[in-house]
Amino acid sequence: VALTALDRALRYEFFMIPTWYLDKSWVAYWDMYGHPDPLPPYATGVLDFWWYDAERAAALKAAGAL
Fold it and tell me: Which pTM was predicted?
């Protein structure tokens, strides 16, 4: 039963490594999103300011990554 659940999670590419005791949040993502550099000084979260970049996504698809 556990292996079936693991297979299902890996097949849908839903990966999570629990890091409950770290004071930072780690995020892994495909390089098809843009974000401002630097972030606004009063940003509440890193993911709030990201946007989808169609050119980067097309490059990843052409390379066979997606």
Answer: 0.48
- 34-58 pLDDT, tens per residue? 888 887 787 776 677 788 899 999 9
Is the bond into 40 cis (omega within 30 degrees of 0)?
Answer: no
Whether the pLDDT of residue 6 is over 70: the answer is: yes
| 24: DSSP letter | S
Beta-carbon contacts of 37 under 8 Å, excluding residues fewer than 6 positions away, are none
Q: Which residue has the tokens 């079936």?
A: 4
DSSP line for 27-63: ----S-EE--SSPPTT-S-GGGG-EE-HHHHHHHHHH
